[in-house]
## 1
Amino acid sequence: MEARAASPDLWDNPQAAQSLLRELSALRSEVEGLKTLAARIDDALELAQMDDESLRAELEAEAEQIEEELRSRELAAMLSGPYDRNNAILAIHAGAGGTDAHDWAAMLQRMYLRWAERHGYKTEILDYTPGEEAGTKSITIAVNGPNAYGYLRSEKGVHRLVRLSPFDAAHRRHTSFALVEVLPQVEDEVEVEINPKDIRIDTFKAAGAGGQNVQKNATAVRITHIPTGIVVSCQNERSLTQNKENALKVLKARLLEIRQREQEEKIAELRGEYTKAEWGSQIRSYVLHPYQMVKDHRTGYEVGNAQAVLDGELDGFIEAYLKQAE
């Protein structure tokens, strides 16, 4: 790849050149990371062989850090899907249940932003619709960083919350649902053709909380893909052009998902395994009352500390899902 990157005719095809350089950069980073890890292990072994009691605390701390990085790299090695290395688009939609459901969507929003922050991912809110009284009705977030889609695809599905409602005067127990969508961000070289005749682009003023207009100019964009009926809107940027680019990015991701789903359904039908995914078939339950537990119904993995999960500790669930999918 380095030889190809050094070729004098590299930029004859700019799109292919950019793709090559992106992949080369990712591979270089991975190889250098492994070399650094190997060097740290060698250094730690040398210190251990000195049998110096004064170095014990330092060695134990280093061993823990090395184990954590090794675990992280083992998890990354499980990513084998065609788009697992891509950036991701995460969308959260509140289900039925009014204010409780909107609050649940906001709790999930915070959970994923916390998880992304812990892993050094950059996040950008592309579109946001607040709940009528509180919380979030829907939100679309770009999550950018190595393997973002590979990790987050385990979160795709319906998430169920059981708790004593803070919005119920009688403080009764409520069950709320939210749908999480995870899509791979499509690189330019991936063929997702959008015929300009197949889309309708509308512009409108970006709305803030309480119906206030964020700006006087119509910078928000809504794109309708006529053949499929998919509607995508982006209003977070102050630039009409940027919002249009982001909306097209989300539309491409949704069209790619449709294509992938159709292929998977055909294979599942041939195997006799196909069952339609319904809204009510939740993938994970978060119980805050009468006890605390978060359980993934696909893998059986569960955690008693629900608050830690809601604070972004999702790696156990992601690891269990990836191991089962291997």
## 2
Amino acid sequence: MLEGLKQTVCRANCDIIKSHLVTLTWGNVSGFDNQKKLIVIKPSGVSYEELKPECMVVVDLKGSIVEGDLKPSSDTLIHIELYKVFNGIGSVVHTHSDYASMFAQARKEIPCLGTTHADRFYGSVPVTRPLRQDEVERSYEKNTGSVIVETFKKRDPLACPAVLVSGHGPFAWGKTPDEAVETSIALEKIAKMAWGTLALTSKEKVLPDYILKKHFLRKHGPNAYYGQKGGKEDD
């Protein structure tokens, strides 16, 4: 079942550790089959060196295991909440990458300070509110997903495909696992650049809106003209 998606999700999980976004087993990637409404996700606590496509777990949108001998990631319910609400996404990536996690722990959004950020994210990368005690005790993972969804009530999740969960770490998404991993890599890079910029100046210098708009829309807008059709991005 979903053999192609299992292979893609397995490779994407391996890619996040190769990209130095993950330490030990602190991260996971899932993929979503929109037609079958099924999710393929990394098994819980299994080292990346041991991962194979057949290790991947298939679950439905209620979190029930459809196929697989291992327990799915403990973050599965977070992924489910995003798939249920964010139309158009086909993969979710969660890591505890250093710089993005520092912003999450500081409960500070990543401001758009330059065009590198604007090329991928339309505005600041938001941070969620902290979960209340009752939300943690009642259903920690499900409510983590819910608070992400809440954060995007007035935002387009496809225009800003990432979030920082307060006190926790980053989540990113995309239409495919490969795209979601690329977004996670970009997120960590712009977090590092923002951290360094804020260390150099006492006053936050947000990129002017007209430059933000130009850089984002030339790649992602209806009249995008950046790069070769079907090709990779360059500068």
## 3
Amino acid sequence: MRIAIVEDDVVQGDALEQWFREQGADVHLFRESREFVRIAGRESFDVALVDWMLPEMTGHEVLRWLREDRCNDTPVVFITARNAEEDIVEALNAGADDYLVKPVRKMELISRIDAVLRRARPHAKSQKIEVAQYAFDLPSKRVTMNGEPIELTDKEFELAVFLFRNLGRLLSRGHMLEAVWGQTANLATRTVDTHVSRVRSKLNLRPENGFRLVPTYNYGYRLEQLADEDADA
């Protein structure tokens, strides 16, 4: 999981960062909302944990920027001292996925984040993924297409699984690099491009086969499943 935490309170931010690192997450902590906005314009995250009361841009303004300006559906969970019913309703109606009132409890927060991700990404922790003609068995690292096995290297398999788990999402190269090669990997993002090309070729991810792996300049890739009429076009 790649999580963005937007929290200007040093103690609270450090605690949240530690909690999620202990869970094995790739954590990106932002003390300033505008810094998050700058990075989120070119990087993708699985979930964003946002304080409502922030200097520069409030959490509500950050959420509006994501949903309206960027058309970004990254799950957003608010953490705030504001506990009035109208505040909670306003946040949820604006597109927030959950809302927790400070002080937050560690295990409740982690459980709520897991629940949000399960709703947003149904395949997030599945041991077997089946989409159209493709079937991925994670324990054996085996993939088949129309029942026929396809040979992939370990990294190609992990990348393909990551793409299918995030079907329809625009994923940044940095996100893909962290998810497949690890957050401390000292690799160029060109590595991602090379492996994406191999996965596209080996799995035949092309419109005539019902899928399209689309690059976005200076950002990353999106794996799309096409409707029948789009695949035939």
